[in-house]
Specification:
Number of strands: 14
Family: In the N-terminal section; belongs to the HFCD (homo-oligomeric flavin containing Cys decarboxylase) superfamily.
Number of helices: 5
Pathway: Cofactor biosynthesis; coenzyme A biosynthesis; CoA from (R)-pantothenate: step 3/5; Cofactor biosynthesis; coenzyme A biosynthesis; CoA from (R)-pantothenate: step 2/5
EC number: 4.1.1.36, 6.3.2.5
Structural class: alpha/beta
Bound molecules: cytidine-5'-triphosphate, calcium ion
Order of helices and strands: EEEHEEHEEEHEHEEEEEH
Shape: globular
GO cellular component, one term: phosphopantothenoylcysteine decarboxylase complex
Helix content: 10-25%
Largest sheet: 8 strands, mixed
Keywords: Decarboxylase, Flavoprotein, FMN, Ligase, Lyase, Magnesium, Metal-binding, Multifunctional enzyme
Radius of gyration: 18 Å
Length: about 220
Amino acid sequence: NFIDGNYKPLDGVNLLVTAGGTREPIDPVRYLSNKSSGKMGYAIAEVAQQMGANVTLISANSHCQVPSGVRVINVHSADQLEQQVQANFPHNRVLIMAAAVSDFKPDHVSSQKIKKDLDHDSLDLHLIKNHDVVSRVAKTKKPDQIVIGFAAETNHPVENATHKLKQKHLDLIVLNDVSNSAIGFNSDDNQVSIISDKGLIKKTNIESKSKIAKEILEILCKRLN
Ligand code: CTP
Ligand code: CA
């Protein structure tokens, strides 16, 4: 059992995890964000550390407790997260991209608080696309590096996740079917499917995020050997 501290299949492996949800500033007091709590990424960081990995966690706006022995780098926006992923990826054998990165950001951040205009009943925000962090970094992957992405899907989940895996040059993708709102975001339990270019490797039960982290990391271990 890996919890007893003797079984260390990731001994000495440098592993980078991202967790949480990015915030895209609108003005000094407002941002756009998403529902990610960071629990899945933090569980992966914790279990990987227990399995012997040297874990660096890039955390975006999560309230989770930092697991002992894990090095944490805090970021807020997608741009900050990208900068830290780029800087740290070359020193790591594995990247696990569990963070929910905003796809868009306001093209202009107002330096002053936006006032509501009494004469208008609407406000237009113009958004521009953020870089796709995991896909950019996976393009720079050395032969021994492994990149694991996540996919949040509500419809045609397996097809869409498989498409993302290939399009982004990922080794594995962890599919979260987010159409069932009882599990997933902010919940302690989840259910995922782990997919490679050869197809479905494993669909987990509905179970704790720690248990899911362990299952993902055990599949990773097989790939590292
Ligand atoms: N991702 C990323 N950079 C972004 C957006 C997403 O690195 N700007 C990563 C996520 O961390 C995740 C994977 O890409 O590992 C898939 O994210 P997801 O939101 O499911 O897919 P998208 O490619 O953004 O497509 P869409 O949201 O349109 O389904
Ligand atoms: Ca997205």
